[in-house]
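for the writeup, i need someone to sanity check this before i put it in the appendix. the sequnce is what the collaborator sent (i think, or maybe the updated version? ugh). structure was predicted straight from it, no edits. if anything looks off just tell me and ill rerun, i have time this weekend
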Amino acid sequence: MTRNMRINIRYQTDAERIRRVLPPPLEMDDSPEVITDWLLIESGNQPNVFVPGPYYESGTFIAARYGGHSGMWEISIILNQDWGRHRGRELQDLTKKDGIITIERHGDIVRASLTRRGKILTHIETYLTDQIQHPRFWLREFGYTGFRFRYCLNPDWCHGPLGVPEVELWRMGGSDYGYPTTMIAGENLPMACDISRTRFELVEASAIDPLCEFPPRKILGVTYHEGETRLQRSRQDPSGVREAYHHHRLAKVDAVTFEPWALYKYDRPMFDGKQLVPTDWPNATSAFKLTPEGIQAYRSRQAIVLSPINVLSIEYLIDSAVHHRTLPSGCDPGQDPRILILALQVERSDVSTVPFNELWLFSRCFVGGKKAWYALANTVGVGGDVIYGRDVFGYPSKQGRVNIEMKDKYFNVVGNRLDRDYLLVKGKSSGRTIQSLNRQMLMVGLKAYPIPEDHRFRGRLVLQPWEVESFNSFPVQLDDLTIEMPDTSSPGTIGKRDPWFELKPVRVESAAVTRGTMRRMYGSYAGEVPNWEEFFLERCDGCLSPEEATVSGGNDTFLASMKRP
């Protein structure tokens, strides 16, 4: 059995606030409506990749029209689990981000909230009634469809935020017959909540999640439902024949016109650790789009800066045959079977409004004759970026627990995901300072991007130069350094995700602890990868379909089975 709780509110806001947010070709609907929801899914079966623990999600959608049809534009979906987030973004073009959601019921009282980057964005308290709710107010009832935009950001931001392929408006779900007008018979139907006793708040303003731009003016309906996990109900036409599920392209969108909205799926750009906030926001402007000045600032930035940071870097050698299997086409393994671990403590950055930790695993390669590091793994602690780097540069970013302790000469690092420790590092530095230096590295990601008018994807390498400028650096005493990569399994069908144990060191070459500044420059494409799926699989926890994620568990490995071309 699977337990789920869902609560959603539909309300009217100021028409002008929706009008200034909508990108063309979407138009204002007759009623300026907003949907906000919160949901919880708990699997009664064994923990799995999709639902390793309680799965929480919260979405916000605003009314819009296209071609005379009324629907809802999805502007924000925030959830706490990795697989649903990155597959939702990469397969369905959903605006999914990481965050913290709560939902609880005590008798007839239901409460829910949404928090992200340390700010409480939404909170609701309502009371159940004994009345079945009208289907128009059921969870994610979008009428004709849920509108969404498909596009890719350009890793070379100097040429503008948008890359290839072109911008497209897509339809996902909904009914050709629009919103339901009559009640539907059935069992365990969603229940109405008492509007007069409902308290809904947009608690704190956040320019990176600007939900505060749509204050409630009139509540139209509040719904609560517990039951089977079914996020969208079946729709039927007047003859009683069930409609097919809709997921197709509606229109091509002019990229120049759409450019101000190019970053609506992401956190707004930051410079020197400060948010780029439009003038007179949120009363007269919107943070869902960039002003001409904001676009120019985005184009002209020299680097994404993380400073100050503490970095533990470890380079070691592995078996040459194993090393070859870590690299896709376009990455020449050369004669140096080297692996790089980076453990970062980030105090301030252009990546997030809060401090965070992250772990990286790279494999040495050569691209176009240049030394480079192919990104195999990136675990990001709470507050770090698991969206922009993954989408734009093809990094294998996933959220987990990254504990990094650095005190005096001693350090301790623990990497954990899906209830499994996959990396344990302990050691101490010599206390002897190395001369300050700049280290330049060329990083390589693998980006999956959609084919226009299609449901298929292609793989492409992305290059991004990094630079680490050290304030001071201390070599690590290799005799005191211990590196463990456990191969124990997670609970249920999760298995051994994040298989760092496949790349255990044969010999450690060097290690150092550095305090300094990291700069990540604009990137570039380096060619297509014909067999990209096999190398992309691990960053999806070995599962490309919901069936694999919830049942079989898929296959998770850094090592390709095919021979290199």
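The chain has two domains: 2-295, 303-552. Residues 2-295 form a domain with the Acetoacetate decarboxylase-like fold (CATH 2.40.400.10).
thx in advance!!
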